[in-house]
Amino acid sequence: MQPDEKINIEKVDTIHKEKIEKLLRQLLIEIGENPDREGLIGTPARMAEMYEEIFGGYKINSELDVSFTEAAETIIAKDIQFYSMCEHHMLPFFGKIHIAYVPAGKVFGISKLIRLVEKYARRMQIQERLTKEIADEVMRRGVKGVLVIAEGEHLCMKMRGVRNGSLILTEAHRGIMEQKEIREHVLSLIYTSKPELQAM
Questions:
Q1: What DSSP letter does each residue of 33-88 carry, written as one string?
Q2: How far apart are CA 133 and CA 118, in angstroms?
Q3: Boundaries of domain holding 153
Q4: Which of 1, 87, 94, 122 is deepest in the core (most CB within 10 A)?
Q5: Residues recognised as catalytic
């Protein structure tokens, strides 16, 4: 998949955009704004449309179809970008997810792993649960073990409260990734920088 290729996020067909638009218009009034002034005209409708997209994870079908038979010991998908919404304050958190798994004879298409991240990220979420849900679903597909690491920045920490930009790391491991030596080896692969290519 090319870096700029977009995943087709399935639309949520149960969202009530007209109701959301009315609620958002009222919210603007309650915080002291005029929803009919220039700049805000159409904002409630645009936000309702946006919610249909960013909460599209509830309707994504992320079946991890096993489509390739390969002899592989460990497969790592690094730096999968994600964007989610904190369920406590409805502010975004975002970052990268790394998925490492040991297949049982067959492997997943990489795009399936990306779509799996989209499924659980594009909803009301907390990072700890997001990490566990991805690991659990990969494990249910019959792999020998899986390790999932999420690195997230939380606007609910940057814009309010402590107003600190700490990077939050969460991790979930299943199967043979429970073994410390295997897990440490995979972690070293994830976090070891790729050596620079030597000039020819």
A1: --TTSTTTTTHHHHHHHHHHHHTGGGG------EEEE---S-EEEEEEEEEEEETT
A2: 12
A3: 64-191
A4: 122
A5: 86-89, 127, 154, 156
Nearest 10 degrees: CA dihedral of 68, 70, 75, 80?
-20
**CATH assignment at residue 106:** 3.30.1130.10
Residue 118 and residue 178 in one domain: yes
**Whether 35 and 100 share a structural domain:** no
91-95: list long-range contacts, CB under 8 Å, 24+ apart.
91/154, 91/155, 91/156, 91/159, 91/160, 92/155, 93/127, 93/152, 93/153, 93/154, 93/155, 93/156, 93/168, 94/152, 94/153, 95/150, 95/151, 95/152, 95/153, 95/167
Instruction: Answer whether residue 174 is part of any domain.
Output: yes
pLDDT digits (tens, 9 = 90+) for 27-84: 999 999 999 999 999 999 999 999 988 998 888 776 665 555 566 789 999 999 999 9
pTM, 2 dp: 0.81
Alpha carbons 88 and 95: distance in angstroms, whole number: 18
> Which residues lie closer than 8 Å to 182 by C-beta, 6 or more apart?
145, 176
